[in-house]
Amino acid sequence: MKILITNDDGIYSPGLLELAEIASAFGEILIVAPDVEQSSMGHAITATRPLSYRKTKVAGFDAFRVNGTPADCVSLGSYHWDKVDVVFSGINLGPNLGNSMWHSGTLAGAKQAALLGMRGIAFSTPSQKQEYNFSHIRPYAEKAIEYLLTMDLNLVNVNFPFSPEGVCWTRQSVRQYDGVVQEAYDPMGRKHFWSTVIPLENSEEGTDRWAISRNLVSMTPLRLDLTDEHQFNRLAGPVDLAVGSGTSS
Ligand code: MN
Q1: What's the 187 CA to ligand 1 centre distance in angstroms?
Q2: Cβ neighbour number for residue 111 with a 10 Å cutoff
Q3: Which residues contact 228 (CB under 8 A, 6 or more apart)?
Q4: What's the predicted TM-score (pTM) here?
Q5: Gap between the Cα atoms of 125 and 93, Å rounded
Q6: 200 CA distance to ligand 1 middle (Å)
Q7: Positive or negative CA dihedral for 234, 238, 242, 244?
Q8: CA 95 – ligand 1 centroid, Å
Q9: HEC readout, the chain
Q10: With contact defined as beta carbons under 8 Å apart, do 224 and 120 qualify?
Q11: 206 — phi, psi (to 5°)?
Q12: What is the pLDDT of residues 182-214, one digit of tens each?
């Protein structure tokens, strides 16, 4: 099995190294990841300047650092490495739950894999104040990967709590956040701004956020189709806008 590994925290993130070590037990791995942090860049691709990469080593693994986004890394990696079976993205240092799935560069790495006809799995875990310690999640990550590789799923978003006690399938939480912009001043007295993400509601049962709050590993099967099925079925049929019919006054 050929496993392409990327992330959005940058190629020297301890989360990427942990994922590479875990993944190497399941097949041949190649690391292609951004040269600098690309968190919250979402599914951006670099289209207005050329991309380049440099070969490097990450803990003995072959790796390429790219001056681009996670989605760029998956495109470049699968261009240079034929017949990639699955792309693993992460382990992100910070959760990617609910609304943050729209902003996540980690998930975008997995989504880009699915867009290109490969399988994609994103992995995230809450930020830790101290030096990163993955010892609690490692056995769960190994089992989750083993299990997911047997499943017929193109795109999965996996989140580990700091100290897992179980695993469950979840749906994406859709609660809203305040999105308030905080104003502050730099040491030179110049105004600057920070985006904030403060959830407005409690997590809904059965969602990714709910699972993590109960110390469960959250696995959310995803699809690329954003169509609102309910609205589409309600609206489906000819659209009578009478454009150019001459009937409007
Ligand atoms: Mn990140």
Answers
A1: 27
A2: 26
A3: none
A4: 0.93
A5: 6
A6: 22
A7: positive
A8: 9
A9: CEEEEECCCCCCCHHHHHHHHHHCCCCEEEEEEECCCCCCCCCCCCCCCCCCEEEEEECCEEEEEECCCHHHHHHHHHHHCCCCCEEEEEEEECCCCHHHHHCCHHHHHHHHHHHCCCEEEEEEECCCCCCCCCCCCHHHHHHHHHHHHCCCCCEEEEECCCCCCEEEECECCCCCECCCEEEEECCCCCEEEEECCCECCCCCCCEHHHHHHCCEEEEEECCCCCCCHHHHHHHCCCCCCCCCCCCCC
A10: no
A11: 85, 0
A12: 999 999 999 999 988 777 778 889 999 999 999
Pairing relationship of beta strands 216-221 and 155-159 according to DSSP bridges: antiparallel
Distance 9 CA to ligand 1 centre (A): 4
Distance 238 CA to ligand 1 centre (A): 44
Closest-CA residue to 114 (of 152, 155, 143)? 155
Q: How far is the CA of 90 from the centre of ligand 1 (A)?
A: 8
Ligand 1 center from residue 91 Cα (angstroms): 8
Least Cα distance to 91 among 188, 175, 13 occurs for 13
pLDDT tens-digit readout, 35-88 = 999 999 999 999 999 999 999 999 899 999 999 999 999 999 999 999 999 999
96 alpha carbon to ligand 1 midpoint, in Å? 9
